[in-house]
Automatic annotation (TrEMBL):
Residue ranges, compositional bias (Low complexity): 339-375
Name of one Pfam family that matches: Ferritin_2
Keyword Signal: yes
Compositionally biased region (Polar residues): 378-388
Region (Disordered): 339-397
Protein name according to UniProt: Ferritin-like domain-containing protein
InterPro entries found in the cross-reference section: Ferritin-like_SF, Pigment-catalase-like
Length: 397
């Protein structure tokens, strides 16, 4: 069965459908498109809720030089995601298939403030990019595959814009992106579902990075996951770091999981039961994931901030001084896990950074970011000492 190129709009999020295989043949593309549509609905609703909640003053208080810039960009991205969903549903209807429209979403934890929302959006778009790449081996119709590629380029542009809006990121942090398999994507997105939403796709257990101090190259990472429960001794587990463009992950002992040098941009971190590296291509990773216990946790290691992004986030005001209020992307991603657990952002880890190395609005303690730390790049994670920004333990940012 062949479908119109309109169906390809769903392909990007097809990666979310974990246990899919070509053995499903004729129904595979339909399954992928239905799943993709639900995730497009999620993204569209996220941006719509954010735009409805925050006022222009919220953006300037978060450090944006002009509220018009972020609002305009979030409006464009929201419109793109809504269009993706509309076209997917029309395409499914054209071949007698019904889209899934019963799923509900919750974003309370991600919409506590503009800083949390913007950082979470950065993670969401990065997951979308990874989903497009991961879906490629699953799509059976070459016409759909081509159209999916056209959506992938749009999602990548969204990601670039959000990297710049972060104020501390690199517009294009690496020459290659990370492909994510279906269950991996769903483990990040599932906590945003409010109530039952049976898509027939299991998610891997969520993995949260729980460091409370600055994270940078050389930092030892600490984790939390329901899958790390003592059943397997921690000294026999492994931390696997996957970078874009790498043929396989970097395996490290779980108890000595240290961020390697020369890292900039997104990193996908998994926990496995052995030290065999995970391959980067999702086709083989899906068929050999029995050793994968949890993850991924997605983090941005922002070691090369760019002037353009700093210009966008340079005029927040606190006590007469200029500050920028941001939170690290991987901390915002923790919102997802927390959303699943509590639906709020009041009882988890929190994190703040300031573009000039000072404390953000409402904080009394300076926090380092990727620029001001004696010349060393770093990434703030964990709670601010006064609890001014609370971010729960999601892992996918």
């Amino acid at each position: 069965m062949r479908y119109s190129t309109l169906f390809a709009l769903a392909a990007p999020l097809a990666v979310h459908a974990a246990p899919l295989s070509r053995r499903q043949d004729g129904n595979l593309d339909v399954t992928i498109l239905k799943f993709a549509d639900v995730l497009e609905q999620l993204e569209s609703k996220f941006y719509a809720d954010a735009l409805a909640k925050f006022q222009t003053s919220d953006f300037t208080n978060a450090g944006f030089a002009s509220s018009d810039v972020p609002i305009q960009q979030f409006q464009v991205i929201q419109s793109d995601e809504a269009t993706h969903s509309t076209v997917l549903q029309s395409g499914l209807a054209a071949v007698g298939e019904s889209p899934v429209t019963s799923c509900k979403f919750k974003f309370d934890s991600a919409l506590t403030d503009v800083a949390t929302m913007a950082a979470t959006a950065r993670v969401v778009e990065m997951v979308g990019v990874g989903a497009y790449l991961g879906a490629a081996p699953l799509v059976t119709d070459p016409v759909i595959l081509q159209a999916a590629g056209s959506i992938l380029t749009v999602e990548a542009r969204h990601s670039t814009v959000l990297n710049l809006l972060s104020g501390s990121g690199t517009s294009v942090p690496a020459p290659f992106d990370i492909a994510l398999a279906p269950s991996e994507v769903l483990s990040v997105a599932a906590p945003f579902f409010d109530g039952p939403c049976d898509l027939g796709v299991p998610a891997f257990p969520t993995l949260a990075i729980t460091n409370t101090d600055t994270v940078a190259p050389g930092t030892k990472l600490e984790f939390k996951s329901d899958a790390i429960n003592g059943t397997v001794p921690e000294d026999s587990l492994f931390c696997q770091m996957l970078l874009g463009g790498a043929a396989s992950s970097i395996p490290l002992p779980f108890t000595d999981c240290v961020v390697p040098p020369d890292v900039n941009g997104p990193v996908a971190v998994f926990v496995t039961a052995d030290g065999q590296p995970l391959v980067s291509n999702t086709k083989d990773r899906q068929t050999n994931n029995g050793k994968l216990l949890a993850g991924p946790a997605l983090a941005f290691i922002d070691t090369q901030p760019q002037l353009l992004g700093q210009m966008l986030r340079s005029s927040g005001t606190s006590g007469g001084s200029q500050t920028t209020q941001t939170i690290s992307p991987e901390q915002a991603s923790k919102v997802i896990e927390g959303a699943s657990a509590t639906g709020t952002a009041s009882d988890g880890a929190s994190s703040t950074t300031a573009s000039d190395g000072s404390a953000p609005t409402g904080s009394s303690t300076p926090v380092n970011n990727g620029v001001n730390n004696g010349g060393k790049p770093n990434l703030s994670t964990g709670p601010s000492q006064d609890g001014s920004i609370n971010v729960l333990g999601w892992t996918g940012l």
